[in-house]
Write the structure tokens for this entry.
Amino acid sequence: MRTKIGLICLLLWMATASAQQYADDGNDRLIIGGDAGIFRVSYDGFTRVYDKRSGVTLGATGLLKIRVPYYLAVKYRHFEKDGSVVDTNNVSQPQNWKENWFTVGVRYLSYGDRKVISYFGFGFAFFNINENSSTVSVFVGREPGKRSASGFFLDGGLEYRFSKYASLDFEIEVTSAGLEGKSGFEGSSVGGYLFSLGLKLFVL
């Protein structure tokens, strides 16, 4: 819990640091990008089946300017994990976890003439989970299968705009989501912590 509070404070600091004189250069109305990162699931029961909570993610981002310094931000992420458990016949059974999530929210940033900028965002998060297993679920008392979850996200990062049409991006994202509409907090959330690096392209 202290780690999550610390990250939230860091993201708020990033937002404050970006509150400078804004300038609209007219070439940042629509931005798309892709990224790769490391995601750590918050759910405590994850290690009942899988050896680690963390793994590689791939993602995509779309930003549409509302007005300076606000953007509509839509993101997609994919996280997958393989594992195995030993059944009652002492036979190892393969397990597979697929987690996809979308976030929709507002991002607070402005490019102007600066090459390095910081940003902050928040909004809603929607998760789809598929446990491909014939034996045991990560979720105690449930059968393996498909699940949905929803909650919120906070994100923040630093971006280096090395040309008029492209930038490199480092981002921290914190998500919290409970299964089937229930509240999700640290230990019971299928969200988690994501640290990613990406490339953004300025389309319009």
